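Entry type: protein chain
Record version: 2
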Amino acid sequence: MIFYLRILIIITNTFMISSQASNDSSILASSETPKLDSYERVISLGHNCIVRNQLNLFFKSFEDEGKRILRGGQLFDWLMIHDLKLMTDCINRKFVDIFDKVDLSIEDAPWCKDYKTVRNHKYKMTWNHLYDHENVALYPSKVSEGTPLLDEEIFSQTYTAKREKIQCLSEKFKDAKNQKTLYILAYTGADTTVEASFDEVKNLRDSLINIRDGDMNFTLLYVPLLKRFEGTENIIVEESPYTGEHWWWGNSENWTRILSDFLYNY
């Protein structure tokens, strides 16, 4: 009888240890799962064009081999986002008025006196590169000789075509709901005061759930200069410290480190 009791105790202890190990593994798997999943789409959410540029650099060899994870241009690739709350509102409204003419105006680019940008005042977004072909001063190789700088006349002439392009990119953004997607928002410039709060990032995540019609098969990767808070459900936070060199391209070494942690399904 004592012998059988000892066997029972051993079996019970073994089961408890095994269960604890299983639980520990589940916890580990749960925390690592977002990075271990294979992502079918990678989409930049800004806040500027540095993110898309770094994605182009990181995935170039794969894209050259025909492995199209970036799937061409995306809606926020070349936008400057000045207010994350308003961007979140725009996503929640499913981009119905993202390019309404009444909200747009031509402005001088702060980084080049001979370049014009178009700004949406309702959502505080600036299209820094949507009109590259209309800005001969900065991109002379991309346009025919003598093309004037963007002005009201050219803006009006090209508005319909540009609007159709934005509508197409909006639909492309919404179509990602059918695929495992990695969305990336980054603040990696020199100004450490320009970043998102925890609540703003959560609200952005919720807007993505909304535009994906409730689908949560995605991860929002938030990359500030300094990591001030941890991630939560569907959110991962990584930092990319400012180096002071080539801020317009970003720190490729940091981006390679961050992006290499994820798996991709080509």
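Comment: The chain has one domain: 35-264.
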